Amino acid sequence: MSDVDEVSALLRPLARVAPGRRGDGASGAGARTLLASVTAQRPDAALARPSVGRRRHGVFGPRRVAMGMAAAAVLATGVVVGPSLLRDGGGVALGYANSAVEIVREGDQYVARIKDPFAEHALYTEAFKAVGLRVGLRPVPVSPGGVGKILGMVVTAGGAPEPRVAPDPSGPRIDGVLLTMETSPQGCDPGRDDGCVMVMRVPARFRGVVDVRLGRQARPGEEYADFDRAMAPGGMFDGVHLREGRPVAEVRAEARRRDLAVVFSLIRVDPKSGGLSFEPLPAGRVGRGWTVWNAWQVKAGVIRLLVTPGRLAGNPFHNGSAPPPSPG
User: Fold this and answer.
1) To 10 degrees, the CA torsion angle through 16, 20, 21, 24?
2) Which of 33, 88, 170, 242 lies at 20 to 30 Å from 26 by C-alpha?
């Protein structure tokens, strides 16, 4: 068999993209994947029966290494690229990796290991698309207690005309199967601890569309997407109770004990719909006897108190009023 034949045999299992078409760049996603495939594959895997002469050099003999180097050289020119590392019999990718995420098939689910929680979300979409999943994974900055947690998920089933939020007290589900997120090692801090990754598991058979907002460690000065979790376990105001409303003076004192700076927003309640709106308010305009009805965590070291000049008939956040909009 000629050298050209052997290079062809090495590359035959890999998908090809003609020069000039999308994906044929040497630095593209397909190129990165093919390079991983070439360097990870056993050099004797493409040829069923290496000759006796080759065996004198061992499995990784000079001739086989040369063939692998030739394949890599072809890759560098951008002539041949592969969109995935491994494929099943139906042409669906079993694994994919780029600089942000690595996805592998494990049983009846795909396991995504997010290596860079600060990457552009397009890199995650690219990887899920390669394995046949339409998953939009959008990491958003959160407080330390929200890192690695799913803040929200909207699912569109295969033929459903409208998106639907998957309600489940134990967590979100896709196609009836629980979608899980964890950190590895458990309890580590993605984006801050070396070797810490977020691990997401998605049912392999799902063919709808899912958009996931995933909490990542906020950069210094970034505002939190989980702003309304201030009084949840692990939040800035964990243990503080405001359901009945409390005077501003008391709540500001609590904030000082926790070394938190305070900003204010005035609550406005629409008399017809009961919907809420909020107006940023300078601290100098807020009286000590005003009432605090809720608190939002803004960013590291800063909490927002939501207030009214006097007491209302009930807490507008707990009496069926419309849910609060994003503070941004």
Assistant:
1) 50
2) 88
